[in-house]
Amino acid sequence: MAGSFPHLDWGWLTWIGLVPLLLVLVLPQLRLRGALAMSFTFGVTYFGGLLYWLGICGAHVLGPGLGVLAWVIAVFAQTLVMLMFGAGAWWLSRRPNAWAWMLGVPALWTALEWVRQLGQLGTTWGDISVAQHANLEILQICKFTGPWGVTFLVVMINMLIVERIRMWQVRGTKWSQDRSCFAVIVALLLSISIGFGRRLLQIEHLHPTFKVAALQPSIDPNVDWDSSGRPADPNYVTSTMKAYVDRGTSSGAQVVVWPETVFPGYLRDDPVLASIVVAEATSHKQTILVGTPERYPIGGPEGNALTVVSPAGVIGNSYLKRHLVPWGEYVPFRNLFPILSALHLTLLDRKFGDPVQPLFQSPEGPLGSVICYESSYPELTREEVARGAGLLAIVTDDTWYGRTAAPYQHANFAVLRAVENDRYVVRAAATGISLIVDPNGRVIAQAPLFTPSTLVAGVEARHRLTFYSRYGDWFIWVCWGMLGVLSIGRRKIGNGE
User: Fold this and answer.
1) Beta-strand (E) ranges in 321-442?
2) Which of 54, 163, 320, 497 has the highest local Cβ count within 10 Å?
3) Cis peptide before 7 (omega within 30 of 0)
4) Contact between residue 114 and residue 101 where contact means Cβ atoms under 8 Å apart
5) Vertex 331: Cα angle to 330 and 333 (nearest 5)
6) Phi first, then psi: what are they for 436, rounded to 5°?
7) CA separation for the pair 96, 13 (Å, rounded)
8) How many Å apart are CA 10 and CA 265, to the nearest integer?
9) Sequence ranges of the chain with CATH classification 3.60.110.10
10) How far is CA 115 from the centre of its chain?
């Protein structure tokens, strides 16, 4: 399962990756203790391998000991959900209703993927749907179900393989009527998904009406600042401003996106540097989204902001990051455990943005945005689109990740956000990976890691809402309802079991 994500990025592994665990959980002689032990082993291996980079990056930022501690806490939090899955699947396999096992397990895994993102330590890293970022035909069902429908379908395929192996393992076992019906359902859903996706990709006609640019000068923004409110090295300030302004000016784009927190000062409080951006916007009639820190009353934390500069030269509203990175931008649970603050477990201490914030207004229409880690949460971009965003911007600074698998894993979320909401997505990353993605998930421009680049592409502002953009995580509630109904069913598994 870990290999289905970068570096390997073998997405096909998810279609068979759950089979060994499920074959163990369904063994009649297995007790609950054994099911939990196997699920714990699976969870630690899966998320420990997937998130290996957290220990490396954490060591650079917090020190070796605390970096490993952050990795352990993150892996343990996700493994707790795997324990829930193991206990639930073990229980479902022992229900008298065959469908409780065959349909209940896909519903349970999907519902628990949704649970994994909740809370201060929640994350969607490792969701099965993200491993299908290159499988565009299957991915189109996200327009209806969000990422959860893809996950459900993949786990159903795993279940079908499990049932076939079980039939081979036990002599005298017949391919029961229940299994036959389940196989027909799986084949039908897979065929519909592939057929719909293929047809949509063939007939969809995009009509770009303006250009966007994602700037990636590949300058590390994580430098020391002094009391002047700028980086301590004045040459860095000059070269950074020149790099971004020159690239934005030469792009010829109507909308220009700077990465996260790359402005070498406080945009609202630095009239000299701000005037340079304002001059660019007015001279070239550009809407510029600038990643900048934003100061608040003395003594309070700073905000991680994306601020709009209009073609008229007006510094407009800011979007303030809502979902901060645990251990990176704040310390989780420090209100409950004050000792956590004393341990200095985070490099930064950011201000949380309001749950609902105004969209950016531009001559091309309303623009929605999320910052960095927020792009991994489907609900955040969905909310922006539901409120009228015709184009989505993702800004990030992935410099911390180095050349680990993390920047590749992180970039793949942009593809799902585009498909789910039927919107172009512009992703500007300070040192990569920057992307421009069309509404069907095609990456139409991409910049490699640590390579100075300016991505420019024609896009359009889209206004049609997908079923998912309109109704959100409805498919999760279908899964919970399915689990409730299947848990009380009485019909026995057709024997030979």
Assistant:
1) 350-351, 367-371, 391-396, 425-429, 434-437
2) 54
3) yes
4) no
5) 130
6) -130, 125
7) 31
8) 41
9) 210-459
10) 15
User: Crossing angle for the helix pair 64-92 and 52-62, nearest 10 degrees?
Assistant: 150
Q: Which CATH architecture has domain 210-459?
A: 4-Layer Sandwich (3.60)
Which sign does the torsion angle of CA 179, 181, 184, 190 carry?
Answer: negative
Angle between the N-to-C axes of helices 474-487 and 104-116, in degrees from 0 to 180, rounded to the nearest 10 = 130
Say which residue the tokens 């997405």 belong to: 11
Q: Could you read off the pLDDT of 311-348 as tens digits, one per residue? A: 999 999 999 999 888 767 776 756 665 555 555 555 66
Average pLDDT, the chain: 91
Backbone conformation region of residue 372, classed left if phi is above 0, alpha if psi is from -120 to 50, else beta: left
Integer Rg of the chain from CA: 24
* Helix pair angle (406-421, 52-62), 10° resolution: 120
Q: How far apart are CA 134 and CA 9, in angstroms?
A: 9
**In the block, which residue shows the tokens 């300016």?**
454
Confidence of residue 92 (pLDDT cuts 50, 70, 90): very high
Q: What is the pLDDT of residues 110-161, one digit of tens each?
A: 999 999 998 877 889 999 999 999 999 999 999 999 999 999 999 999 999 9
DSSP state of 129: G
Average pLDDT over residues 95-124: 92
